[in-house]
Amino acid sequence: xxxxxxxxxxxxxxxxxxxxxxxxxxxxxxxxxxxxxxxxxxxxxxxxxxxxxxxxxxxxxxxxxxxxxxxxxxxxxxxxxxxxxxxxxxxxxxxxxxxxxxxxxxxxxxxxxxxxxxxxxxxxxxxxxxxxxxxxxxxxxxxxxxxxxxxxxxxxxxxxxxxxxxxxxxxxxxxxxxxxxxxxxxxxxxxxxxxxxxxxxxxxxxxxxxxxxxxxxxxxxxxxxxxxxxxxxxxxxxxxxxxxxxxxxxxxxxxxxxxxxxxxxxxxxxxxxxxxxxxxxxxxxxxxxxxxxxxxxxxxxxxxxxxxxxxxxxxxxxxxxxxxxxxxxxxxxxxxxxxxxxxxxxxxxxxxxxxxxxxxxxxxxxxxxxxxxxxxxxxxxxxxxxxxxxxxxxxxxxxxxxxxxxxxxxxxxxxxxxxxxxxxxxxxxxxxxxxxxxxxxxxxxxxxxxxxxxxxxxxxxxxxxxxxxxxxxxxxxxxxxxxxxxxxxxxxxxxxxxxxxxxxxxxxxxxxxxxxxxxxxxxxxxxxxxxxxxxxxxxxxxxxxxxxxxxxxxxxxxxxxxxxxxxxxxxxxxxxxxxxxxxxxxxxxxxxxxxxxxxxxxxxxxxx
Length: 608
Known about the structure:
Elements: H1 9-17, E1 24-27, E2 34-36, H2 37-53, E3 61-65, H3 72-81, E4 85-88, H4 95-105, E5 107-112, H5 117-122, E6 129-132, E7 141-142, H6 143-148, H7 156-161, E8 168-174, E9 182-187, H8 188-202, E10 209-212, H9 219-232, E11 235-238, H10 245-252, E12 256-259, H11 261-276, H12 281-303, H13 309-330, E13 337-340, H14 347-356, E14 360-362, E15 364-366, E16 371-374, E17 394-397, E18 402-406, E19 413-414, H15 418-424, E20 431-439, E21 445-450, E22 455-456, E23 462-463, H16 465-473, E24 479-485, E25 492-498, H17 500-509, H18 517-521, H19 524-538, E26 547-552, H20 572-578, H21 580-586, E27 595-596
Parallel strand pairs: 1-11, 3-4, 3-5, 5-6, 6-7, 10-11, 12-13, 13-14, 25-26
Antiparallel strand pairs: 1-2, 8-9, 9-19, 15-16, 17-18, 18-20, 20-21, 22-23, 24-25, 26-27
């Protein structure tokens, strides 16, 4: 951490870039591209001058639309140095929603890949300029044109020094499950408090290595791979396709890292697959023993209990013989800390990695709180909780368990929506999070679920659908998404959608000619695996929470589609309406054959 604490992102960046100018700040896997801090700072200066040359001023808004690439960083940070509000939009955003966001934000300039120009123009939004990274479609500027617009008399130092803590640094558009997304206005003061508060808990060091693979429109990527870099000097590896993240982590061996639960679950499945498919019987037996020792250690960590001396001794031996090698195979052998966030993670997944020796903790946050609101260092984490509130924040639980938060992380407001801002933040500055929590005597918080998504069954029992879904999804990587139904019903059922990436590999391994969702949803082996997965998940749930029936839908759900928001949240009301017939069939006394039940034993038969 720097000796001084800065008030704005440009001030922090100027300090950071001067620490070790020839160190690599940005790279891609295999060092196919690299950029030093010296080159980075030089490009930031040129971009700021160019943006000023085409008329961008402090307080103006610019948007970026591109994949995770090195070129993003000096463009974004250059805009910050003018005092502009710079933000990213999701690349998958449809033209109509894109037009709404750009209009609501008051965007003057968009910097994008040329493939998005047609979609930008389809929205009929009037822009001063479109700047393209690759090619120059008619009516656009190239990055070289942008740089050339800078003038010799541009006072770069005066521009970034004029940026104030209360200036709006970025907008984060929350992908609501209904209606248009809301633009969260986040100030430099918000973000600087965020970075230093998290650093006080977790610790950042200049040269720490991390990946960028989530969309830059997501606050989690901006927090971990943009703002942390500007303030603390982390080295970021840009991964253009999230499907390549496992290989990128092996290439990098990061020192700090974070991911959404689904990524952690897939990494867990990959380890289990590797062990199960070891061809040498003796070696496989040793690996299975080591994982069993890790599982025992994980259970103690989950329970928050000290592990017995014999477990510690067995784990040290297992680590020496197997586990440290498994961590190296994953690329996790240099990790100081790792986080899971953005959605609840199954406790058994946390326990698995804790047992493996990966220093992992779960955090919680939201865009309206600048990203992270609660976290504890893995050394002090209580697995199954999201840690403690960051220092400097206050919280209280309402009568219904909803958590309210007050402090320097609370957003300035929703862009252009004063009424909705007042609904979210009361006159005393308390932000209503919409999440139901519990808190223990030591201040550790646990998320129950979104307040509006809790299930109340016919008997009046309250349940968390997210908890049920995540518990079952953790049993098999074949499940990409699922939604539990049970509100006002006698028992719970579920609609299940296969994971496109996992079942595609399944189809390739078995040389299936047809890898469509419809064909794979009817595949007996996949059906059986899902039946077993649901049954295994049910064993970890209370009787009233268990899923009694389910259906595998013959389709894939895509992020940004009808069923899942761009931030990967289920649109439960949309799903309930769109699949009303399929849901009713789950409750028929004599359901159709595509309605399935959890496996009841090793000899359970498949219904054909």
